Amino acid sequence: MSTDEESPFSDLEASLKKSAAALREADVPFLLGGSLASWARGGPETRHDLDLMLKPEDIDRAVEALGAAGMRFEDPPEEWLVKVWDGETLVDLIHHPKGTPVDDALIERGEVMSVLGMEMRVMALEDVLVTKLMALDEHSLRYESLLAISRALRERIDWKDVRARTTESVWARAFFVMLEGLGILPEASPSTGGRDTRVRVLTQPGSAAANVG
To answer: Which Gene3D superfamilies match (predicted)?
Structure first.
């Protein structure tokens, strides 16, 4: 998500229906992403903006289709998305999320679901979490929605996959520590990577050094 402002959920529903219909009519493939992708599977309700994932080469056609449906285009300074406004409701068209490319493989991993009476592809939960975790940095460190999704849908998520794909992020690693501490996930087995983990105890000069196994 790119904003902290909230919209009535009914407005998000209406904008999703309008956007999905316009993109389908223009034959533009997309995924429902962000927190709405978890909501569609029984996760927590969201009141933030609407995230649609599109391949970079399809952005211009998407903007044209949504503009024809009465939405207003905005070109933000960020290079990983463009925005359209449906009245007061923001729709983010995300083409370069951090952590995974938007390509045919990502779209194919999405699950075809009935959302608000319309069939559409919904981003895989693992991909939702990877993109959210990889977007965290010290200036934007919000774990609330991630914790809510994890609590609600933990049994449906391939946590091994998510952990492996986000291990380079210190913020993602910290998130897994939180999940384990809160009992949402079992604690990972400690791994030493084959290193000698004996504690070497320093003694006074003249004494024998002791190794504690």
So the answer is: 3.30.460.40
Residue 202 included in any domain? no
pLDDT at position 194, please?
A: 45
Q: What's the predicted TM-score (pTM) here?
A: 0.82
Number of domains in the chain: 1
Q: Is residue 112 part of a domain?
A: yes
Name beta bridge partners: 31.
Answer: 53
Written as six digits, the tokens of 205 are: 């000069």
What's the CATH number where 118 sits?
3.30.460.40
CA distance 149 to 135: 16
Tokens of 166: 């986000």
Tokens of 86: 């449906």
As a whole number of angstroms, the distance between CA 51 and CA 90 comes to 9
State the DSSP string of 152-181.
Answer: HHGGGS-HHHHHHHHTT-HHHHHHHHHHHH
Closest CA to 76 of 136, 2, 1: 2
Phi, psi (rounded to 5 degrees) for 86: -105, 90
In the prediction, which pLDDT does 199 show?
Answer: 43
